[in-house]
Inverse folding.
């Protein structure tokens, strides 16, 4: 089955600086890679996703890059703000490949220092 | 429109009792997923329903766990003879189809004493 590794487990950055979270996956058949943000006591919410037919996707301050050859993908947040503080999860799925649900990384606790 | 809803929001039960958790997906979403999140941990996939099709149960942690989806809409996750290690937040998600954005419900926090 799929295995997703996520690093770092905790990341502290100064407000205004950039934050990068990295994930690797094991199943070359995976073709859908979402990122979820989870605030304390809340449900996970999708912030951006990427499919294997593109290498990069941006949405305002958030971007995701995918390297299929190396089987890793990264989340980039620029100009960080206090409201970016949360736990971020990466995930992978092989759509149509038999794996039925998302395989998640263990999460990164992002702390934005004022 | 309404999002994914789950009930109850909290459930405290004694070890050995059975519990039933309910999920109402977003109307029109054919795909429904159950995940489990233990304290401070990531999300563990349990089971997936596509419409009324029989699900692959291999992701369920033990044979004490079962799930069903009636009429392609509401789903229930049942845990029999609960154990303390079953304590977790059980999250349901739905999507238009597999591979589309999954929208999560608020979860049911299960505590087994």
């Amino acid at each position: 089955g799929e295995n997703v590794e996520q690093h770092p487990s905790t990341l502290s950055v100064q407000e205004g600086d950039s934050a990068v979270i990295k994930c690797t996956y094991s199943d070359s058949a995976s073709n859908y890679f979402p990122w979820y943000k989870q605030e304390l006591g809340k449900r996970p919410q999708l912030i951006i996703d990427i499919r294997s037919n593109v290498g990069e996707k941006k949405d305002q301050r958030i971007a995701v890059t995918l390297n299929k050859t190396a089987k890793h993908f990264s989340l980039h947040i620029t100009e960080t703000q206090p409201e970016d503080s949360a736990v971020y999860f990466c995930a992978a799925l092989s759509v149509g490949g038999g794996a039925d649900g998302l395989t998640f990384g263990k999460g990164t606790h992002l702390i934005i220092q004022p | 429109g309404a999002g994914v809803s789950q009930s109850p929001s909290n459930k405290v039960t004694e070890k050995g009792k059975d519990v039933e958790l309910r999920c109402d997906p977003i109307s029109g979403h054919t795909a429904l997923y159950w995940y489990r999140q233990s304290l401070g941990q990531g999300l563990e996939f349990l089971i997936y329903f596509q419409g009324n099709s029989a699900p692959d149960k291999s992701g369920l942690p033990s044979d004490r766990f079962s799930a069903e989806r009636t009429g392609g809409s509401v789903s229930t996750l049942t845990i029999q003879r609960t154990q303390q290690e079953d304590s977790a937040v059980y999250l349901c998600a739905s999507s238009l189809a597999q591979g589309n954005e999954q929208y999560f419900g608020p979860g049911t926090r299960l505590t087994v004493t």
